[in-house]
Amino acid sequence: MSLIYTMARPAAKTLAKRQLEEGLKDPDAYRKKVKELQAKPLPLDRLHKQYAFEQEYADGTVYYRIRSHTADGKHVILYFHGGGYCRPLKTGDFEFGEEMADETGADVWLVNYALFPDATGMEITASAVSAYRKALLEYEAENISFYGNSAGGALCFAVCIYLRKYLPGVPLPGSIVSHSPSIRIPAAAKEQEKMNLLDPLDIILPAGFVNLYTERTDIFQSGGFEEFASPIDADWHGFPPTLAVFGTDEVFLAYLPGMIEKCRKDGVELETYVGKGCHCYCAKGILPEAHEGRERIYAYLRGVRRPEEKLSTDLKEELRRNQKKELDAVIMYRMLADRMGPGKEAEALRRLAADERRHAKAFEKITGKKEKPDRLQADAICLMYQTLGKERLFRLMAKGENDAACRYVPLGILFPQIERIRQEEQKHAQALLSLL
Length: 436
Prior knowledge:
The chain is built from 15 helices and 8 strands. The chain is α/β, with parallel strands linked by helices. The two termini are 35 Å apart.
């Protein structure tokens, strides 16, 4: 992780995640807060000094049209912002929108769609559809793309479902980029289980946040468009090619396997991209982690397809680091077993070494790279065995195994074989403690 990301984590947990956790405890206070945010106008005078855009309307829905400096006049991206369908556009959306316009050669419309609690899911989707139908007056459908993050990422699919259901004669857009979408509310049991495991890594969303939408139907109403809450449960046959982007440190990563299976089942062309980062990390331009992710998004919006590029560079490097750590653990357990001599404890440590060897082989199949172990760590552990004693050292080693299991949670969602490794690392921690 970059220094900026690491330093920002405590503040993000305080300003974002803690506020949402408080919202779970007191939904009425949360409702009041979002209403205050909605009432606060955008600083348009200041934004006009930084970005080139016009405020326009589509059947009462406001959108901000950012013109690309490299536009060919044939392509447009409808940008659906995140915020749980209740938080308005932010100044950061203008920054991302302008860069998106310049990097893709398409105009970008920041769609200021209707919001909860004043609007229902039906009205929110209809608001977004109004902007799309306005775009169809100027652009061919195949030259219109949807980009959305978080709730906006799910709205991309809700709009397509709405069009199919209520306006079957209107063509669907040419492509979708869905960034950290909330595609099922409430989450399925397996998804919620994974969200609970990912919760310690997430600095923005609590694992139970989506439950707020099902528990407070007085605030979050579908308005008769039941597919709005869980667009993944609708029929996606014929939907446009889609890029799904997620971060490793977000609870919504738990949605990715279901999304992959849904697109496979319904025949939707899907590319996936996962990077080291938080919820909607590519939208946060200050983060170095966002740069590679943004380029992946821009390339897709330009029509470039890279189905083989599923992981960011830093995530690939993390896989290799974990591969090496597993090899280091092989030597560590073997050397400790040799120090102890014959007996049940030494046999137990050698069994752990064999597991770690198998783990390293599993990582090697994923990375396609050979790694060399480092004997220095094993030497250090053996020295600690002499100085700290078995009990203190084994407790430290058990903590290390549990830490590894935590690191492997997002990787286990991406690779089933790593999920098995994660579970074994937890067993290793228990085995070490049982030797005390």
